[in-house]
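Re: that chain you flagged

S.,

Sorry for the slow reply, it's been a week of failed gels. I finally had a moment to sit down with the sequence you sent. For the record, here it is as I used it:
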Amino acid sequence: MGEKERRRVMVKDMYGDDESGFDTTEILGDILDGDDEAGAEAFVGDDESGDDILGAILRKSKKGNAQKTALARDLLRRRVQAGTLLRSVSPRSSREYALGLGSTSVAGNSSANINVQPQVIFRPERLVVPSNIAVDFLITDIKVGKNSQLVSTGALPAVMFTENAFGVRLKMDTAQISMFVTISVTNQNPNARNFQGGLVGPAVE
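Prediction finished late last night. Pasting the structure tokens below so you have them in one place:
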């Protein structure tokens, strides 16, 4: 008796005849014949058939990864086509800043607008006018961008905002970078006077 035939007899003795009508050697296939490729197919199954559990799991995992990669690429392509990709950056620091109004010559009994542009995000909270010139000026408006920070059109005496004044914290609108902050003033003196002052408030950058 050859080696191959002896192995078939041993298998038949161990497992008996299957009730399905198939010979044991037929069920096990060519594994008994030493065919590695057939053995692998018998245990793992044919991926294309979809009948084997392991093959189905592997195919599902590969398909899921491929779908995720395709979606990520499609999202990136849409963002690039839409324009420049922007990234939100949180402010690094916050502190009190002073914004100078410079020195503007205002003719006697005339008005002028003083425009300044902060270079950081800035919220004015106090206007300061030197006491030695405040008596000659009225504050007719304060604007952040296009919005007035006063509740009416009535002028305010500049002496309200001198360096020694109390209770004049205004908490104005926030000015974005390079947005105009405008102080409108009127010189009550018949002679030309220079208006000077500054704004104080928190800023972030």
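What I noticed first: Residues 39 and 72 are 39 Å apart (CA to CA).

Talk soon,
D.
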